[in-house]
């Protein structure tokens, strides 16, 4: 397997709006990020992924871009960005940006032109269609609910938007669009950034003819993923993108590849045929986040994660993550954000962090930040949450039922301001925060975590350290053990004569286990655990995790 800097790296995702406000307007900004770079460096981070900071009307908080080559006013100026890049590099870290090229904002000049007339030079930069039988051109549902089409009376046609109605999809079939995007990508790479996380990239190829999808349940609109997620023909676009941009630089690229199956991994991330260095894939997230509240289906979890580990073993690379700005907090969703918050956060960390791949930590995950339960929908900001609330209310769903869904799965769970200390607004802002701070900030904050050597923060810091000290945890093979165990996720990482054993009890009940003979009889050195004594050779305590070096 080829050695690469981005395989040895640990990455940290910043959602700038919620990270740190430097000027008291209640909105996080670039100078705020700069003021916290030492904190990120001290954790042991190598690569920072910043969610979009380009000009945007913020309908989807920056994922709706109106100018790819200018900085969002609320976040600062291009000079601030240049300073951020310099300060990141000065600390021997790297910076990757968020590349959103499936769609733009409807306030982007291209779309403002495109909607003016049917024969406008930019008309085919987007996907326009006349109505069909007085309705939308097809029955596709937007990922944010409702129709995937919005009527525009100026030209009496509809335009497609897989996401919010202010995020019109770009027409990737149009070579002019692709060329303009490649020029923009190279402009950023020439500024010296170290790569990209590529947003919603598995959605760019739509099924030819944009036909109605089968609708056996006679829904108003049909979930549209089958019409646009990882469709045949997408690889040609991705190959052209890579050849015209990424392949010319020593950078790190991670594709957000919803809907890609493990058996397709080689085409996406293979050392020879891959288009990205690694991808975020989401199969495992359906096990517990958006739709279920029954905790982890551990057998499915093992099956899916192991499938990716072995599918890529040697041929490609994974991006390992539990959280991001679209997911609820993992300790609330998978673990226990009550009695066993600390133990379960550490257990989950151990389970995912030491697999084969580049581990990503999302801001606040390293201090065990939890979900939040705001009483009123007015306390929420996310367009996906607002659409969900409106659509369900229109169908007469009781408010309490909708709030439960939002509390369990809403994206604002991971977007409440970073909790720096126990002062007003958790030290995030001296103004009124754009989104309320989680009320538990007095108990859960960076300052408290830094002072407590048994904190989740220090546990992540040790995880990062042992990953750097043991090459098997980067380049070693992954072998699942205790495959059928109902509570414990255990695996080994092996490289030449170095072997590391990772075990995590993912539940709050004690759990017996029986290691395979080869491991049971070997001498072990405990590298890390979320308990500090009385290690029973045959059982694990609630959420107990252990990492052993096999001698
Ligand atoms: O998300 C793309 C994506 O796959 C969505 O289905 C995402 O999983 C969903 O929003 C989760 O509820 C990316 C960004 O991560 C997301 O924040 C943006 O809203 C979206 O693209 C549009 O840019
Ligand atoms: Ca600010």
Automatic annotation (TrEMBL):
Pfam families found in the cross-reference section: Alpha-amylase, SusG_C
Residue ranges constituting the Glycosyl hydrolase family 13 catalytic domain according to the UniProt record: 13-415
Keyword Hydrolase assigned: yes
Primary site of residence: cytoplasm
Localization annotation: Cytoplasm
GO MF annotation list: alpha-amylase activity
One GO cellular component term noted in the UniProt record for this chain: cytoplasm
Keyword Cytoplasm: yes
Gene Ontology BP terms: oligosaccharide catabolic process
Keywords, alphabetical: Cytoplasm, Glycosidase, Hydrolase
Family from the record: Belongs to the glycosyl hydrolase 13 family.
Name listed for the protein in its UniProt record: Alpha-glucosidase
